[in-house]
Amino acid sequence: MSFQAYLYNIQAKTGKSPEDFRRLATDKGFAVGGKLKPGGKSRRRGGLAHGRFWPRTWPRDGDRGAPQREEGRWLAVTMSRSTLKKAGLIIVFLWFAIGGIAHFAATRLEMSIVPPYIPWPHAAVVVSGVFELLGAAGLVWSATRRSAGWGLFALTIAVTPANVYMLQRPDHFGIPVWVLIARLFLQVGLLALILWSTRPDPARA
What we know:
Blueprint lengths: L2 H12 L3 H10 L3 E2 L2 E2 L17 H4 L8 H40 L1 H6 L8 H18 L3 H17 L1 H9 L8 H22 L7
């Protein structure tokens, strides 16, 4: 519950606004000059209902108040989520930047995993390498990050036949079958990471 909603809830149930409680506190000597006296949290029946409203409606000396504490908690969660998203974004960037370079540094190796039914394997490797590098570059700028994310998502799906082909013919590549199966699951995780790390953060209402 937000701080303002908390105040509305109190007013709806008691018929008293925060200003009413402030005047009541001053009249009863619990507050002076707009500040709650030390030890002024009422424990008597009636009036302020055992002082249960104090932490939200009347900040103590040196206390920033409930709205600030709520804001602090929200900022902590946001910063933690932002840090994780940045880490995910770095992983996606490195994955495609290194992969794109490999398409040109090890072209013959990349061509060997292109399924036979795909024509012009050399062109397929070069074009996909260019798109991987462009997508990685697009992640750097926030203005192009979301579009780059969708592009890399589509590209990852487009190259999946190469991974399936390797799984169908593991004897051609000398790679254990379990590694190839794990790679397919890793690719599903990569797709999710691309969408999550490139998704813009929603503005707080």
